Amino acid sequence: SPLSVSAADSVVTAAVLAVGVIAEISLRSEMAHLLNSQVANSLAAFNYSYAKAKLAVSKPEAGAVAADELGAFPGQPPGTVIAVVRDGKVGFAAVFTDGEPAAPPADGVADLEGLDWNGVATRTVRLGDLGLHQVGSRDVGSGVRLVSAVTVEDANATFNHNALIVAGIMLLALLAAAVGTVALVRHSLRPLRRVA
Question: What are the CA-CA distances from residue 112 to residues 6, 86, 93, 99, 165 (Å)?
Fold first, then answer.
């Protein structure tokens, strides 16, 4: 009957929408997990390099010397920003590109200095002209904090691309359900047209 076809169509529509919503939530969750993992890996490598450089020098200014030596720090993905923050002020910072690391713009440094590091593991912040970054930090004692910020621009572009694909598939499935419903209703009503 047309009512049962309409009910079936509603169930199919609800199922397609539910799958789409779950896929979008899953994509966003996976993106956040991957960004946090990249921040953790960047911080681990940064911490190792910082500790190694600090141990290599025995002078009281070891932290500053170690920070200076980090300018050639390899292995960070393009767009990543690392910084040594001492008592709330950035003493050293570098942004990594495909080439050599460079000093980040002043507005990015100011944004890093304006962050409150208490109680938050990672967060997404805008670092001036550098754009959105997932930022994490590690307290290494004596008022020194190592900061790593991984760009989220590529992850957002990938998420938006995949979200459009999921939305397109949902739209096609809904259109297919609608066309199927119309075809079933027409087929179900054919005997009534013959009587009329």
Answer: 56, 12, 10, 23, 35
Q: pTM for the full model?
A: 0.70
Among the listed residues 74, 92, 77, 85, the one whose alpha carbon sits nearest the alpha carbon of residue 140: 85
Distance of CA 130 to the CA centre of its chain: 15
By CB atoms closer than 10 A (0-12, 13-18, 19+), residue 137 is buried
The model's pLDDT over 156-169, given as tens digits with 9 standing for 90+, comes to: 787 788 888 888 88
* 64 in Cβ contact with 91 (< 8 Å): yes
The token duo for 80 is 């990543």
Contact, 54 vs 63, CB < 8 A? yes
